[in-house]
Amino acid sequence: MEFTQEKGLYLRIAPVLIEEELKDSFLDYAMSVVVSRAIPDVRDGLKPVHRRILYTMNQLGFHYNKPYHKSVRIVGEVLGKYHPHGDQAVYNTMVGMVQLFSKRYPLLDGQGNWGSVDGDNAAAMRYTEVRMEKITQELLHDIDKNTVDFVPNFDESTVEPVILPSRLPNFIVNGTSGIAVGMATSVPPHNLTEVINGCLALLKNENLSDEELFQLIPAPDFPTGGIICGKAGILKAYTTGRGNLILRGVVDIEETKKGTALIIKELPYQVNKSELIIKIADLVKNKVIEGITNIRDESDKSGIRVVIELKRNETPQVVLNLLYKHTSLQSSVGILMLALLDNRPIVFTLRQVLTEFLLHRQNVITKRSQFALEKALSKEHILIGFGIALNNIDEVISLIKNSDNSDQAAAKLNSKFMLTQEQCKAILEMRLQRLTGLEQEKINSELKDVQKEISYLRSLLSDKNLLKREIEEELLQIKDNYSDERRTRIEGPVDNVTEADFIANDEVVVTLTKKGYIKRVELSVYNVQHRGGKGKMAMASLDDNDDVLQDMFVARNHDELLFFTNLGRIYNIPVYQVPEASRTAKGRAIVNLLPLNPNEYVVKLLCTKDLDDKNLVMLTKKGIIKRTLAQEFGNIRSTGIRAITLNESDELVFCSLSSGQDTIVIATAKGQGIRFKEEEVRAMGRQASGVIGIRLHEDDYVIGMEVLSDETQDILFATENGYGKRVKISDFRIAHRGGYGVRTIPTDKRNGQVIGLVVVGDNMDILLIDEHGKIIRLSSKEIRTLGRQAKGVRLIKLDSGSKLAGAFAVVSSEKESQEVSE
Predict the structure, then answer these.
(1) pTM of the model as a whole
(2) Using the 8-state DSSP alphabet, how is residue 141 labeled?
(3) Which of 15, 29, 82, 275 is at 20 to 30 A from 148, Cα to Cα?
(4) Which range of residues forms the domain containing residue 269?
(5) Where does this one sit in the cell (predicted)?
């Protein structure tokens, strides 16, 4: 320690480590921010600046039933007496207390421009006017009855309340947010009726279970409405003080003259409408969201209305899911119920918040009752003195007349009637009109009323149940005066949103070539043509690669796609993960989608959503058939699983789903076919090899299989030269599996070998594709039903040197069946 002389004085200088000084100074600053600025008190839910504004307005008498006053006057008064910070900090706080979209129950009633949900700033404080809302009186009720402590202001020229006596659970009702040093608070607003009900329930039963409490207060309630998705994060916040919730805007789907439109009617809490519209426009511009043609803001004083017009045939729910994903139309609201209690920051649970409010009310009512009791006792004391004086009025008047001054008169009254100084002073100041008989009766009646009040106040202070009843009556009164309906809806969680939710569940045509190129095309691309038409290109010519179409079927984007390979393995992906391509595009190599082994290729595609109570029937090139419960293929690894064990030199060629009670038709390239009951093939495990389905002649092989449940339909056989015929299913008698079968269609020079069979009905269309990728779609009604020995009719006019590669059936639509392709 050193001493140094400066200006004739000796100063003591102590060395201090800079690390310690920085630590102490920063901690002091941090606690000042926590206590004096950013964090509210759990009892009245107010930060110091909010409390000072309300107290100032109460002192000035700017109540809800009085005229409006300039905001600048209030700001100046707050700055000059209580809050020595920037004027904009005070005014911005006032703005937040006025805005209907910021506070669930606004505390100030403003007149003028106070900003908007579009992010517009409020007008300058010299232009706006303000007064307190009616509900604000509940925060300041009984403040003049010694209910709360007061401390000197910053210059000790006056005093200010440490806390307001609030009859309103403002901390949880209006919510709050604030960032301090090393901590923050974020409490969403709640519905007053629900919170009061929770307080009343806790008041009656301190051991109320969390489940019962959370039923009374199920979730926050935001001033801008919206939809809360799920309650898991809310329940966590209510039980631990920390959590979050998913909040969505309210969007309706409407049909307008221009088509379908999304109408945004409610925004998530604290979302800027203008910024949201700009964000949507940018997403459309950058092609992140497609399908939107126009965005129009039709909001007015009656409410929010943002119109988002969609392209024709666009799926509204898909666009809406994309808006939820990429914009603040869906937002996450964090919950951290941090507040001060006796100047200590604490994270509270919902139960603790309500409990602290009820304890606060008990303390306020106790102090108010003590204050009222002291006043009543003082009044009783004076009234008793009046009674003594009135009973001896002549003597009292004589005594006063014979006194030289008031002090002597007081001394004589004290000596003669044992009256106290306060009683003597009151008697001396009593007006002569109180000596009338009517006034005397009034004094006696007033004395009885005061004594009755004293008795009640003493009971209130000594009886805890009576104190609780007083709190209950106050809460019920507030509920009756200010209750309203919940604005925010509560719905199920959205945690299970998948990629499929962003894809329209449209019908598509999935095609696969022998070389392993796959694609999906919207079904509407292929219009209906007449029998014998020349068709429409489904993909670019495959001649250069010696590639032909192998499989094609119609599915929806959300369906599950099963890939069966020649090696007897099975893979799966959703249909929407198949690359979308144009009608003439080649598609994408399937090896980029599936982890295929060397010499492994896909031989069959199946599509299904639900595998329960179904069987999977598999057929090999050599006629071996196998039936397995489809549910065994419910959980397929990304690397695939084994579906069938194959014999040497055999390979899997066809698969289909069945009910277990169907019949099976197998066809070969040489025009043979067999029909037998599915029951003849017993169900086997995934590792089994199967049994004989059809015996084959030399050089013959299986080209197709159909599983039939409707015996009234027909079977269409198609040959490689573009001919085919419909045959009644009943023309094929039911035999036993393992035979050679019967003739299906002649395989002479005109027809060529059989390339496929499909089950058809009059409500179906046939898709035919040649080996060059050209597709024709024709109605099955144009193909007449023939006998089993008939040679058939021309289905498609093939180009020279081309052969038919596949035939497929789809359900026709009336609209499409009326269209004819050019």
Answers:
(1) 0.70
(2) T
(3) 29
(4) 250-328
(5) Cytoplasm
